[in-house]
Every structure is written in structure tokens, then in C-alpha cells.
Amino acid sequence: MKLQPVIGLEIHAQLSTKSKLWCSCDNDAHGAEPNSRVCPVCMGFPGMLPVLNEDARDKAAKGAAALGCEIQKFSKFDRKNYFYPDLPMGYQISQYDQPVALKGSVQFLLPGERDAHGNAGKMQTKKIRITRVHLENDSGKNTHVGTETLLDFNRSGTPLIEIVTEPELHSPEEARAFATELQKILRAVGASDADMEKGMMRFDASISLRPESEDKKLYARAEVKNLNSFAALEKALDFEIKRQTKLWEKKEAPTVESTRGWDDEKGETKLLRKKETADDYRYFPEPDLPPVTFDDDQIEEIKKSLPELPIEKFFRYKKEWKLAETDALILSSDPVLAQFFEKTVDLSDEPKAVAKLLLSVVLAHEDWKKTELTPKHVADTVRFLHKKNISSSGAKKVLGAAMKTGTKIETLMVEMRLEQVSDSGEIETWISDVLKENPDTVEQFRAGKEKVLGFLVGQVMKRSRGSANPEKVQEILRERLKK
């Protein structure tokens, strides 16, 4: 019996606001001293009332619209009751039956199947439905030290959107590809930085198996909580598929839904508790917050404000600028990189040459965004390469220098002596010297060993300190060696 994985995701993404969801505390607590970004509101002190952060509301709606969801004209907040030590109110303010957005879909890319030679095929697209998007606040953080637990409430009250998918993913690879696309979308529209190293994006993955013949039936699922990286998401799902497959093979398919945790060091999931239901949380309407409302004009304005999404850029780069799929994918993934790329193309009208420089030279510098590099630097380098005023190795050096200083490319070429020489007279002089110094190599070439030409070209380039045009050098060398 062949089994099919059935996977649904719940994604928690921290909204990129200056302050928390219910108070004016700083929303950026990464690296801050524990309990230094708190106030009576986010600490749940008696008598303190929450006030909705309107920027969080708007970014939640914009993020939802980018996921193709229908923004609801009326939504409300509810109290979700559960008792964790890092939840100071004793409940979470979330949205239950009337969330901010419903019914969306996300198209994402999947790598093509590799052929017999290992070459990747054309990328495929898949669309997954989004069930809902709702607003809620985050809890604090537990740090376990021996038998004691330390509590840091800096994150308590941080604004989150929870994105819930339909169970339409069928492999760990699909889940990872979808989650990656989601991160790109949230970043592109400015809803969330979605930086997983800072805990800004986390996944809860629900997975069950079913016989492929039963393509609609759903069996008892296991929900793996708080996965904080793409790798953890993929590994946890892979482990669960193997674990549940063994149960099916023993005719012990799960009949009770469970909540499990991921142990990254051991590479396995562990049972935490039986899966909670809505009844367990005892939802009731939040009495201290008014409902969230949007009118038709506001919803239309949000939709109009959406930028071109990453997957749309990917297809445009392929169609209009004839970029290879892998190049188009990388350049469309990051909104800052995509903007830099497009500005450079506007200045140079050479999309393929710009893409090559960005991918091979600029992105080799991890912190390139923090350097002095501008689109004009790259466009000018492309122009000089096209005119053969500079070699490819010279272009790499000059861009590296521009990143550090911001100096014009023309100036750097002169200062670093990187301007490529195509003057036949000067090249002839260098070649004459090299031929005199290497008579044995000259005889080898004339005897039919053409491979030695590369050595002679290298010697000329060395004598010219890399400034000679290598194509011109090879052309003149061949003419001289025929004599």
C-alpha cells in the first residue's frame, strides 16, 4: 500500500512595527537585556487595558492581501485561554471565528526533476490555498537552566500574524518551498522581516498519512510545534513520515491527534501532549478591544498598494530579460536585491551582464547591502567590460574597491592600473619580450603542442600586470608564432 503525506502549516510571522501590539513598548527586543522592553500592559498587570496598534492592523491586512486573501470588513478579537509561565495575562488575545482575512492562495516554485545526468529540469509551479490569517500577540520566552526556568517577557505582546494553510502539501520539499515563498512575500510587501534567526518566523506543521487511493480522506494528524528554520521544518516532516509509515505498516495507524516537539540535536520528534481543540481554549470575545473594520475603499487601497510579488518578478525576468531560471530566482527573491538589479538594468540596458556581475561578484560579499556600492558602479563596470576597457578579473577587483570606498569606477581603474590595454604596439612589445625569454615553448607550439599557447598568454598578462586585453594578446601571439 502506497501512502501519501498530507501536510498543513500554521506560520507565525512577527509584524515589522516599531511598537508592540497592545502597548508602546519597543517591538525590537532582539539582543536586549531580559525584561527591559516591558510595561504594565504587556506584563498583564491588573487594570491595564490593551490598545490596538493600527500599524500592526494595516500590515496584517497588507500581508493577507499579498497572499490573495479576502480582507474582512469586520473582524474581532477573542481571548484564547491557556496557562503558560511566559504568558503573563493567563490568556492570549487572538482571533477565533472572525479573523482579519479568509480564503487566499499562494503560488510557489518547485525544482524540476533531475535527468539521468543530474541536470535540474524546468521549475514547476504549485498553488496552495490559505484558510485564514489572523492577528494575535506573542508570549514571552522560557530559558531552562538546570531545574529552574528563567522568564524573559521582552517578546510578550509582540504583534504576530498566524497564516493557516489547507492540508494540500504532500512532501517535506513542498512544505519548505512554500514556506520560503511565504517569507519572500511578507518581506516584499513590508509586512514582516521574517528573520528566523531572530525568531520572527516559526512554523507549526500538521502531518498525517493516507493511502493514495483515498485522496480526500484525512486521518489523525500529528502537529509538530515551533519549528524555527526551513531545515528544521523539512527534517521534522521527513522524520514524521518515516515514524507514521512504520505505524501504518504494523496496522497501528494513529487514531488520536497529538502535539509533538522537534529535537534538533537528536533529529526526532517527541510526544508532548494530546492535541488541543477549540473547546480546550474556551474562546470568548475580548471585552477590552473594539472590532477591526475596513470599508470597501480601504480594502481597495490596500490591494493597490501591493508591489510586484517575487514570483511575478521571477516570471518577468525570465520572459522580458531572458535570464536563466536559477538567476531569475535568486535576483527576484530579495526585494532589496531586486530593486538594485532593476535600477542597474535601467542604467545599462544589459540585464544578463548585470545579473552575471551581481551573482558572481557582488553577492560573494555577505554584507554587500551595507557597502558603498551603487547601481551606477555596477552599470559603469558593465559598460567598461562591454567596451573591453577592463578584464573580468579587473572588474571583480574594481567592484570590490568600490564597495569599500564608493569611488567612481573610472577613477578606480586608473588608480589600480586596471584599464585594459588593447593598443597593438604596446602588446607587441610585451609579446616580443616573452617570446625571446621562452624559445623552447615557442618551438613546442610550432611542433603542434597548441596547449602551450595558454602559458605564453599568461606570461604576457603577467608582464602587463593584467592590463593587456587577453583576446588581443592571443590574436597577436598566433600571428607571430606562424612566422
Can you characterise this structure?
The protein has 483 residues and is of the alpha+beta class. It contains 16 helices and 16 strands. Helix 2 packs antiparallel against helix 3 (230-249) and helix 8 (335-348) crosses helix 10 (375-386). The model has no long low-confidence stretch (mean pLDDT 92).
Layout of secondary structure:
Elements: E1 3-14, H1 54-66, E2 70-71, E3 74-75, E4 78-81, E5 91-94, E6 101-110, E7 124-137, E8 141-145, E9 148-152, E10 159-165, H2 172-188, E11 201-211, E12 222-227, H3 230-249, E13 258-263, E14 268-274, H4 278-281, E15 284-285, E16 292-293, H5 296-304, H6 310-321, H7 325-333, H8 335-348, H9 351-360, H10 375-386, H11 392-405, H12 409-415, H13 424-437, H14 439-446, H15 452-463, H16 470-482
Parallel strand pairs: 12-13
Antiparallel strand pairs: 1-10, 1-11, 2-6, 3-16, 4-5, 4-15, 6-7, 7-10, 8-9, 11-12, 13-14
Which parts are unreliable, with pLDDT below 50 for 5 consecutive residues or more?
none
Helix content: 25-40%
Widest sheet: strand order?
A: 2-6-7-10-1-11-12-13-14
Give the overall pLDDT as a whole number.
92
Oligomeric composition of the shown chains: single chain
Shape: elongated
State the separation between the terminal residues, measured CA to CA. 76 Å
Total strand segments? 16
Structural class: alpha+beta
Please tell me the total number of domains.
Answer: 3
Strand content: 15-25%
Q: Helix count?
A: 16
For the largest beta-sheet, the strand count, sense and barrel status come to: 9 strands, mixed
Rg over alpha carbons: 30 Å
